[in-house]
């Protein structure tokens, strides 16, 4: 009985290991604190560039309207 039990437990362990390798985790990849800060800085820079571009386009529109009114 002992031998059967031991063999079965070994086989069950193997099956568990194989199944665990097949199922990947849904947990997001770890991002270090320094990398998070870099990402935030990059996002802020992109946002600032977009705001600057919008302001320039608005100023150009205002200038064109003033020229048309004259």
From TrEMBL:
<feature type="compositionally biased region" description="Acidic residues">
    <location>
        <begin position="60"/>
        <end position="70"/>
    </location>
</feature>
<protein>
    <submittedName>
        <fullName>DUF2986 domain-containing protein</fullName>
    </submittedName>
</protein>
<dbReference type="Pfam" id="PF11661">
    <property type="entry name" value="DUF2986"/>
</dbReference>
<dbReference type="InterPro" id="IPR021677">
    <property type="entry name" value="DUF2986"/>
</dbReference>
<feature type="region of interest" description="Disordered">
    <location>
        <begin position="45"/>
        <end position="70"/>
    </location>
</feature>
<feature type="compositionally biased region" description="Low complexity">
    <location>
        <begin position="45"/>
        <end position="59"/>
    </location>
</feature>
């Amino acid at each position: 009985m002992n031998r059967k039990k031991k063999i079965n437990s070994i086989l069950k362990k193997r099956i568990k290991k194989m199944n665990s390798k097949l199922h990947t985790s849904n947990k997001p990849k770890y991002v270090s604190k320094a990398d998070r800060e870099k990402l935030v800085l990059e996002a802020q820079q992109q946002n600032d560039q977009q705001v600057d571009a919008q302001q320039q386009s608005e100023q150009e529109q205002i200038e064109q309207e003033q020229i048309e009114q004259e």
